[in-house]
């Protein structure tokens, strides 16, 4: 399969997207391919490379049934998609800072001296963030990963639908996550589309852009 992201061909990925609500419910995506797509999606940048995104792939009938009451306006996607990909932001992502930077040293991407200097500055800085500040950081970074996942999924031949309408206060606990640590960012349905989808209107770039 040609990866259009690698070949920089976005012609029917970024600009030809439609909102898909109905999928082929008999089509399943393997866990191996799902992990491959997540790996490709998480090449996206994040603040000081803390990578706060966390993924929960809801694919079993049992898990979908548990999710369904929490997304009452998006049940068609839940019922027919290959999976519902729940994206959370880890409010304590900085705890992995040493592991991330150690790996960078081992792979020759950073010197040990630079690692030590950066961690000494970054970790205390993150720990001093207010809850609101940290919430903003992890949601921005995780949203980048969500958008990249949508592009990656399209390159793999699948369709997606981003969902923001869900019971945010219940989502983490429904998938056995600590709701104080993991904040829900977005849900993406993914699968093989069974409909043309809905086109939507966009403002002209001149209306939303200023040049100074």
UniProtKB/TrEMBL annotation:
Gene3D superfamilies: NADH Oxidase
Domain Nitroreductase: 16-192
Pfam families: Nitroreductase (PF00881)
The entry's keywords: Oxidoreductase
Claim: Oxidoreductase is one of the keywords in the record: yes
A GO molecular-function annotation: oxidoreductase activity
Family per record: Belongs to the nitroreductase family.
Protein name (Swiss-Prot/TrEMBL): Nitroreductase
Organism this protein belongs to: Trichococcus collinsii
Taxonomic path: Bacteria, Bacillati, Bacillota, Bacilli, Lactobacillales
